[in-house]
TrEMBL record:
<feature type="signal peptide">
    <location>
        <begin position="1"/>
        <end position="18"/>
    </location>
</feature>
<dbReference type="GO" id="GO:0031176">
    <property type="term" value="F:endo-1,4-beta-xylanase activity"/>
</dbReference>
<feature type="domain" description="GH10">
    <location>
        <begin position="70"/>
        <end position="368"/>
    </location>
</feature>
<keyword id="KW-0624">Polysaccharide degradation</keyword>
<dbReference type="GO" id="GO:0000272">
    <property type="term" value="P:polysaccharide catabolic process"/>
</dbReference>
<keyword id="KW-0732">Signal</keyword>
<dbReference type="InterPro" id="IPR001000">
    <property type="entry name" value="GH10_dom"/>
</dbReference>
<keyword id="KW-0378">Hydrolase</keyword>
<dbReference type="InterPro" id="IPR017853">
    <property type="entry name" value="GH"/>
</dbReference>
<comment type="similarity">
    <text>Belongs to the glycosyl hydrolase 10 (cellulase F) family.</text>
</comment>
<dbReference type="InterPro" id="IPR044846">
    <property type="entry name" value="GH10"/>
</dbReference>
<keyword id="KW-0119">Carbohydrate metabolism</keyword>
<protein>
    <recommendedName>
        <fullName>GH10 domain-containing protein</fullName>
    </recommendedName>
</protein>
<dbReference type="Pfam" id="PF00331">
    <property type="entry name" value="Glyco_hydro_10"/>
</dbReference>
Amino acid sequence: MIEWQLMQFSLLIHSLQAATANASMVSIRSASLQPFSAEQWSQHREDRIQLIRKRFVNVHVSDSSGARVVGAKVAVHQMSRDFPFGSAISKTILGNKPYQDWFKKRFNAAVFENELKWYATEPAPGKEDYALADQLLQFVQSSDAVARGHNIFWEDPKYTPWWVKNLTSADQLRAAVAGRIESLLSRYKGDFVHWDVSNEMLHFDFYESRLGRNATTDFFRTAKRADPLATLFLNDFNVVEVCDDLSSSADSYVSRLRQLADAGVTFEGIGLEAHFAKPNIPYVRAVLDKLGTLRLPIWLTEVDISNALDPKTQAAYLEEVLREGFAHPSVDGIMLWTAMDASAACYQMCLTDGNFTNLPAGDVVDRLLGEWQTREVLGATNDRGSFNFSAFLGEYKLSVTYLNSSAEGTFSLARSDDTKHITIRLQP
């Protein structure tokens, strides 16, 4: 196993001189390479969070004549978060009010664990059943959360509907996949912000081996026509989890994206499942840096930690993964793979027990959610009539009071390097 560390590289420049009219020669006296300390690594993450997940705000308060008001009371309350942070859910949440309340309190994004997969929605040819998916979508929408569509096709034959595997000709299979896209995306057009079009295609090739190398290209084109507002993703495992799976290295992912792009596919999103045993955080950052050069949104789509580890170790590793993902400028959302089944079990990692009492991993999630939002900011305008603060991106409610005058309003904080300036004029 290769051990990765984030290194600091420093140079002492001896001289700099022009070598040609268009180039310069640099003479280096010495160079050094040193690992970051844990404290430096953590501070680097916090600095990036301030830069990409928060924004400075300056509230300017004046009276009806335009004069600055000193000492006006300012109260700011966050109403919603900008960064999508969610969890997988399954049919067990339906009709389960304690589960629903627990979910709504924490998450603004959801993905269905199995209920949208082809084997679930069409278990036999022509026998479509979207009842569970419809109910889950209704719950998500009533929770003011966004939903990821997972998935249209799964290249692993193990999870391909039995009747699809039994189709005897390419024409039959081609008709079946066309029907799948049409049925699924016409029903849910505009309802899901993402679709994982081809799941785990770096490891498996059920459809391409039967329909040809252009099969995935056709899937993406057809899906885009059917639901043009959805962001279309590839999704795969072991890209950030390990460095010894050559099928899904960052280079393999980039190469596959370029092959499909050359065939005319417009790619919009990179899905990284993130099913970890022991995460190698420097490697995670290196992969995110490399994939980030593609300028596509990256989502960690199925984050969990192996249940081969004890709950406290799971929680510690989960915290490292979540902090690294949240601090990376190319990561646009994080989904936990923590749907709970009827026996209060999860795929690898649960956040709570069956009574919705936090397990160690749940404590981590709650603590980070608390860190990554600006619940309330209270203060007063200074001698220039201004009040300054830094807040996480999202939607806010603002109120200003001074003597017998008051004003209220709302504002949004989107990602930007600029300070957000808000002007409030109090009326008598």
